[in-house]
Design goal:
single chain; two-stranded antiparallel sheet; 2 strands
Length: about 190
């Protein structure tokens, strides 16, 4: 591990329980024990446990105006993955029924300022904590990533787009794998 990277171990069960209950108590909400148990079981030792937990607790808190957070309300949201898909569909629907903003392939530089429909859509998904704009540490180019992998699995609309583009995505992956060797060959047209 490099000098600026530090390994972080997964939370223990008691640490997860405290990470669920203490922030809620700090804002005057309570979390029922059944919900704590369900979240600890469902989130467990996933590598992205804390962001997932933050997402679902924020969804529960926002949906019910800071009232008590219960297992029943968690299940109303569709559980962890259902809540992510639900939020994505809400954001999608709020952007307009005509779909003029939908772009399957858009360079980040083309939507960076948020001035067009696709840029506003990107901003909406980032604000909803479903997408993140990151910067490649080597190229320093921005890129968009999903904050939760469950988005691709659980949001039917996105899963459908991925399935429809599966062949093109495989071709793109193959092409990306060929770029390095081609550049290393000094762009010899025979290779």
């Amino acid at each position: 591990i490099g000098p600026s990277l530090f390994p972080i171990r997964p939370c223990t069960t008691s640490e997860l329980q405290r990470a669920i209950a203490l922030p809620a108590a700090a804002v005057g909400a309570s979390v029922d024990d059944e919900l704590v148990g369900e979240l600890v079981t469902e989130i467990g030792t996933r590598p992205n446990a804390l962001p997932l937990m933050q997402f679902i607790l924020t969804e529960l808190f926002d949906l019910h105006g800071g009232d008590d957070l219960t297992l029943g309300r968690f299940r109303e949201l569709g559980g962890l993955e259902g809540a992510i898909a639900r939020r994505a569909e809400i954001v999608y629907d709020a952007l307009g029924a005509d779909g003029s903003w939908v772009r399957r392939w858009v360079p980040v530089r083309d939507v960076r300022d948020g001035s067009d429909d696709a840029g506003q859509a990107l901003d909406s998904f980032v604000s909803a904590r479903l997408l993140a704009i990151e910067v490649d540490p080597i190229s320093r180019e921005p890129f968009v990533s999903m904050t939760h992998e469950a988005l691709a699995r659980e949001w039917p609309r996105l899963a459908g787009w991925i399935e429809a583009d599966r062949e093109a995505l495989a071709d793109l992956r193959d092409l990306r794998g060929s770029i390095g060797p081609w550049l290393a060959s000094r762009r010899d047209p025979d290779q």
